[in-house]
Amino acid sequence: MIMEPGMYVATSAPTGRHSDTKYRRLHRLLRAGWFKHAKLISSNTMPKQKISLIVLMTSLLIAAACSRSDVRDLTREDGTIPNDSIVKRVEFLYLYDDEQTMLGGISSVDSFDGKWYVLDNSNRSIIVMYDAEGRPLNRYDRTGRGPGEYAEITDCDIDPATGRIYVLCGPPKIIILDSELNFIREIPLTQFYHRIAYVNDGILLFSGYDAAVDRMAGDGSVKRIFETAKDAYYTDSRAPVFIRSGHDIYFQTEPSDSLYRITHKGCEVAAAYDYMNREEAQARHRTESLIGLKAMEYVRPKVLCVMRDGDNLSFIYNRIVYNVSMEYNGEYHNFALNIAGLSNALAMTGNKLVGWIYSHNYDPDLAATIYDGVELHEIDGWDDAKRESGNPILVIHTLATVSYTHLRAHETK
């Protein structure tokens, strides 16, 4: 299995001299195991031709976001953009281990003052701090029942101004650490939450049980600022719910298929998604849990990061494949992306979108092909020992400031 990227996909009948190349590439990458959702189908029990046909048919369901005032189905608009239009730099950061630090996976990642903070709750609940070279500096690993201890860590977030880390735990409480992972204090909670985000006037808490967002003020009081209808759609534990972009925080919740911006009064809709079978998907998710091919057919968009250029809002999202939607004159224009490391996308930190892969999935030659034209920083001293270690590798995408108008100007040159 190699790196799992988003792939080029034609959302209408293939035309032009590159169309055959795109379909051959899709088929080749699918056979190599690049398509994330193909894991739902065993290649030992189903012919490769059928897998390719199923994924190609499912890919035709992709749609783009819509504007706040005019819902547009962009499914039939075929367009891709080169990676160097949206990504300035890509760095592959190999995470070293030691006797006390052996990650099983990555559930959350953030950065502060040149250091990386990684949460692993797939193997054991631990937060590890790494330097810029990927070497572990410190760790927070305190399971138990006392102050500063926990049974599990659900999520964490960093105050970008101070570096304080807000750790969401079970039993329900918030543990606050300094930037060196030293315990400061803890705040008890009255219920379980699944996501946390620090804001200047308090803490945001998301509950997947009732699709609600609560805001905790500095005095510990809690106020509900958002709630929507519940449904049975599965929340991917690696997909971000709160998305920090500059001084703004956005959040997404699946039942409403919308992207919201947090305000002092509560929240407001920033963009509402429109996609094929949207109403049917919402109705079915309210009454049943879909698995297998049905889950692929009714998969919902997941926003990974949000970018703002003046009054124009753009965002990268995943629905079967990866797309960037750019706002222009009140409408969203959709382009497919071919980028690696986002199938395990974690967070937007500053102007960086960070994902991860395992070391045995890393292919330097393939990375150079995918990111042609992008400033690429690969792993120093890459050898068989690193490849066979199974250690995680951060894939750090430094995003360019780009809008639809900039893109069109670039294309017409």
What does this structure look like?
This protein is of the alpha+beta class and 413 residues long. Helix content is 15%, strand content 36%. The chain is built from seven helices and 26 strands. The strands form six sheets. It has a five-stranded antiparallel sheet, with no helix packed on it. The chain has a five-stranded mixed sheet with strand order 23-24-26-2-25, with no helix packed on it. A four-stranded antiparallel sheet has the order 3-4-5-6, with no helix packed on it. A hairpin with a 4-residue loop joins strand 17 and strand 18. The longest helix has 14 residues. It is globular. The two termini are 39 Å apart. The N terminus is likely disordered.
Please sum up the structure shown:
This protein has 413 residues and is α+β, with helices and mostly antiparallel strands. The protein is built from seven helices and 26 strands.
